[in-house]
Amino acid sequence: MNKMGNSKTVYRTILRPLLIVLLVEIVLMTGSYWLLGIDGQLNKNARDILIQQTENRKSYLQNEMIQKWSNLSTISQTINERTQQLIDQDVISLQTLDSSSKASAPLLNEISKELISTLYSKETTGIFVILNTHDLRENKDNKPGIYIRNDDPSTVSVKEYGDLLLEKAPVEVVRSLNISTDTHWESTFDLSTEENTLLYKPF
Fold first, then answer.
1. Cross-strand bridge partners of residue 166
2. What proportions of the chain, in percent to the nearest 5, are helix, strand and coil?
3. Helix or strand run (H / E) with residue 185
4. 103-143 pLDDT, tens per residue?
5. What are the residues facing 165 on neighbouring strands?
6. How many Cβ atoms sit within 10 Å of the Cβ of residue 190?
7. pLDDT value, residue 6
8. Above 80 in pLDDT, residue 39?
9. Would the pLDDT of 151 be above 90?
10. Which of 25, 29, 59, 180 is spaced 20 to 30 Å from 133 by Cα?
């Protein structure tokens, strides 16, 4: 009987001070939390971190856009060279180049592989070329060209060009490349509405 009484006394003697100390710590922590404005500081720190991450992402995207995505000097030079070669060989003519899909098909076939290579190397979702040899303010007829899309540049397809879709291209080019056409595929670019064209308002 004495042993049980002693156990209860020791238990209460140890437990009560511990509970009191724990209660004091809770009161002190809660008071410090509100008095020192820890809640506001934590929110501010979270906002600062988010702002910094956003700035870093912005700088990364700007650098990628300038240095990689929009740097098309190499492919532009290639297209100009191929165009001149075909003109010299009397395969195409600048007077009729933008008049029909048939007239533009030799050039588009000639540069298609370089366009695809550039699309992959730039890791972008699309690349396009619109052929025009007239003043667009006076001539807004449908223009021939090619627009190749890749919705997931980070994934490499096992099948050659299996991850690509043709948005715009002449029938002759579609057959030559053996790339699937998108559901909204068209053989030419419609330039009649400026707000809806890649030429006037690039993505």
1. 148, 181
2. 55, 10, 30
3. strand 181-186
4. 999 999 999 999 999 998 888 889 999 998 887 777 777 88
5. 149
6. 13
7. 57
8. no
9. no
10. 180
What would the two tokens of residue 175 be? 């057959």
Query: Rounded to whole angstroms, how far apart are CA atoms 151 and 119?
Result: 11
Phi and psi (nearest 5°) for 5?
-65, -40
- CA dist 127 → 43, 138, 149 (Å): 43, 26, 7
Share of the chain above pLDDT 90, in %: 27
* pTM score of the predicted model: 0.65
The amino acid present at 92, given as its one-letter code, is: I
Strands (E), 86-180: 126-130, 143-149, 165-168
- Rounded CA-CA distance 35/181 in Å is 65
Give the DSSP letter string of 24-41.
HHHHHHHHHHHHTTHHHH
Cα separation, 122 vs 183, whole angstroms: 25
Cα 165 from Cα 180, distance rounded (Å): 5
Q: List, in order, residues 6 or more apart from 173 with CB less than 8 Å away.
A: 105, 108, 109, 112, 146, 166
For residue 147, list its beta bridge partners: 128, 168
Q: Are the C-beta atoms of 168 and 185 separated by less than 8 Å?
A: yes
